[in-house]
Amino acid sequence: MPAYRFELVKLLVQGRTRAVLLVCLLAPAAFVAVISQQSSLPTDTVFGRWMNATGWAGSLVVLAFACSWGLPLLVSLVAGDVFAIEDRLGTWRHLMVAVRSPRRIFVAKALASLTVTLLLIACLVTSSAIGGLAAVGNHPLVGLDGHLLTPGAAARTVLLAWACVVAPALAFGAIGLLGSVLLGRSPMGLLVPAVLALAMNLALLLPVPVALRLALPSNAFLAWRGLFTEPASTGPLLIGIVVSLLWTAVATGLAYVMFVRRDFTDLSNDGATRRTLVAAALPLAALAGATALVLAVASPGSTGTGVEKAKLETSLSTAFAHLYVLQTQELHRPSVTEAQLDTSTACDKGGSRVQDHGPGNDWRCVVTWRLPGASATGSAIYQLDVTADGRYIADGDGPKEVNGSFQVRTSTGDTPNPLWQLDGYVDLLDRN
Fold first, then answer.
1. 231: preceding bond cis by omega (within 30 degrees)
2. Nearest by Cα to 112 from 4, 224, 241, 16
3. Is 381 in contact with 364 (CB distance < 8 Å)?
4. Per-residue confidence at 358, pLDDT binned at 50, 70, 90?
């Protein structure tokens, strides 16, 4: 389509677009390559503690960073200005004479912004993967339940995780299109997706009901973590993708209707009126409310935070068993399987006066296991910091020979004791 090619070229020749593409192509590789060689790793970021063990961890760290605010900001720079730039330059009349169809103009601009958005994501994936593999190598990856993914499985899962964030990126891209149409020549259109993503991320930091959490497209930026458990926790991920596609359809539809109804003969009218802003915001708010209501009815357990004692105990037991087997192999001890360990966990939150549910950094868990042929039962203590999105960090609190801080010599170099600090994930929808 000539109009699409024209709009795509217009986007790609802009200095801002070229600069963003260059940054997405070079910065992730440089970041991963440099950080992977450091002794101090970004352990607060999911998979950050494994950056010097496998190249695939670096790509996931970049993914986590991009999902926090990077992707909404990138789509803001692309979709948030694709219509507004015509208002600032005063070129609508010339464009209408050349194309003669508001519908074709809208489709061309929307497809051009979609193409550039996908190109940006492809650059991030390629750059981060190449940087990690070149700096560290193609080694197995430890999942969020402690199980070991082979290099091939790690590659497939990492690529799938990146693919899953395309849907929420499109949702914020559609919101950018809507903001660009509504706000006209105002530069605020550039900020709409980023500001909305920031507001949603702040809301997701709070212990809000699971139904409301899943009704927001930004939650899909976090749900890919469920792919790194065994079996994969796909419920929140699939819901997040569907919700994101619904937001994409509604926001794009609103932008289209308001664009084709605009009077382009009036140069003073750029579409930015209070009535149109309210008309655009209400359907999206109604969509979020209706989605939350449907999820609450379909899954009664989604009215709480989703962080429950039983879920944490099951998750930590599984992760500990997997990592104990890994530690045994690294220390060249007699082999043992997860089933033979018969691991169990007892967790408590904040003492007897606090109910054992909800996020917080006051969870304390005691893991017990028994080695084959041994009469005594082993135990280890962990302090857990559980976030509202279901991710937790378990910090070993003794005994030091089991989950203390010491280095283990492996075939790829010295690595920290895998049982010292571990990342875990609980499915907020799982009723356990």
1. yes
2. 4
3. yes
4. very high
Omega cis (within 30) before 399:
yes
Percent of the chain with pLDDT over 90: 68
When mean pLDDT is compared across 187-191, 215-219, 227-231, 300-304, the lowest value belongs to 187-191
Residue whose pair of structure tokens reads 């917080």 in the numeric block:
360
Contact 227, 237 (CB under 8 A): yes
Which comes out higher in pLDDT, residue 27 or 93? 27
**Phi and psi for 252 in degrees, rounded to 5?**
-65, -40
Q: What phi and psi, each to the nearest 5 degrees, are found at residue 334? A: -55, 135
Please work out, in degrees rounded to the nearest 5, the angle formed at the alpha carbon of residue 398 by the alpha carbons of 380 and 314.
30
Which residue is it, tokens 């990492």? Answer: 158
pLDDT digits (tens, 9 = 90+) for 163-179: 999 999 999 999 999 98
Q: What is the distance of C-alpha 37 from the center of its chain? A: 24
Query: CB neighbours of 12 closer than 8 A, spacing ≥ 6?
Result: 18, 116
Nearest to 184 by CA among 94, 92, 103: 92
Give φ, ψ of 410 to 5 degrees.
-125, 180
Q: How far apart are CA 120 and CA 115, in angstroms?
A: 9
Q: Which residues contact 276 (CB under 8 A, 6 or more apart)?
A: 182, 258
CA dist 313 → 181, 306, 308, 349 (Å): 50, 14, 9, 12
Residue type, 214: L
357: left (phi over 0), alpha (psi -120 to 50) or beta: beta
